[in-house]
Fold:
Amino acid sequence: MAQTQIANSLAEGGTMEMEFYDVKSKKKFKATSFTVKERKGRFFAVAKSLSGPHECWRVLSKEQAQKLKK
Structure:
């Protein structure tokens, strides 16, 4: 998702929807419920998988992470 779309979505006060890829089920899905985590200086959005008990991780830029943490 482009940076301007993230900024616009957050400015409107709406919930942010991100697309994740579930490696185990090999399917994409969209989630509005996710957390932002940092590991070794990199930022990730983490959502619960729709098809099982595992998590799906998506890499974020530092700018995206800062905007989503607010």
